[in-house]
């Protein structure tokens, strides 16, 4: 065996990353697919376009390789997608993704009337979850909902069409809001609330579950050998932690791409009545606890559009301006809730805000404040994790923001911790590939991945900057808490 593949089915693209066993990337290919917003608040995708993209990515990434030397394929996928599917594997509706907010009213009612659902499922009661989407379908007598034989995620949709298997990995199942994370089974009480039956859902399995015998026409499109095994893997969150080496207690992964997240593994579900974070099953004895932010790199993209006049200011130029401004941006704060917010307060009606503007603030200050605001949001979630018993002793960073030295240094200063960066930013794909290696008997355990993650530079915190950030975060947290009811008023207007 020379290679293993991590197939990462993300929100905007499918990536096939071919790795050597030591974690070095041998080849990769990415195929994008569109996101549709037919109505304000809707966020949909065509499942068949995703399938085509995944097969094309596999095919092109492996064209120059000897097929017989590929050990297998591990699969990572984004969470919270929902498709109504018939027994023949045809989608009856577009895939509703995590950003679909049409069920905001249902999620709000659920949070008020059924708070125990969170304590059983570990999924915050929010329109991102398939649970609230299913309730919306039931309440609106959505025609595909009435016709569906099965309710599945994008990953389940593909595996059913490729292998005829009716299985779902623990972490994708847990992110539905329908899965009892304490007992690793579908929660029948919650299914009753959603108006569906257990036989309309697939069988939950561990991430090491392997499949083979892909349908002949699809094998040809994938370019793989007919005997190539596929291992189900998990969702992109826990696999990113695994792929970056954040496995043991005290090891934290922070990923910021378009959106952002902070996560830690734990040996038990970590939940309380505040409902600030998620806690999802990964294996029979590992859970992933953390929180996502709606607003990551897209905040910097918004600043770029805001500050560009006759020409578009390159992101690199903006971050250079931000790097020339002192930590704290001249006491200018930015609440980065341009698209509402998930953790820690799960308010789809939240709005973005600059706080503390004065005539002395320039482009650099506004840019740096926006970048700091994204990290304050992550730090805010990190505080909730600390309250539940998770501590941030070692921090690993990945995602697009990790390409900015300025942004990574801000992260080190805000958390007052050293930040370690991997060479490859494809942590979810490597995590999926490693689960495949473990499942197929090529490595002894999951934790041994630590010796197979090529790392590059690290960043040490600046103590003076940390003191400034500590003081500013107190104001950030105070203002954020106070404005939640005002955000709702603005939203109603």
Automatic annotation (TrEMBL):
- Outline the extent of the Carbohydrate kinase FGGY C-terminal domain: 253-439
Gene3D superfamilies hit by this protein: 3.30.420.40
Carbohydrate kinase FGGY N-terminal domain segment(s): 3-243
Tell me where the signal peptide lies: none
Q: Which SUPFAM superfamilies match?
A: Actin-like ATPase domain
PANTHER family (alphabetical): GLUCONOKINASE, SUGAR KINASE
The entry's family comment says: Belongs to the FGGY kinase family.
Q: What is this protein called?
A: Xylulose kinase
Q: Which organism is it from?
A: Halobacillus karajensis
Q: What high-level taxonomic lineage is stated for the organism? A: Bacteria, Bacillati, Bacillota, Bacilli, Bacillales
**Which gene is the coding source of this polypeptide chain?**
xylB_3
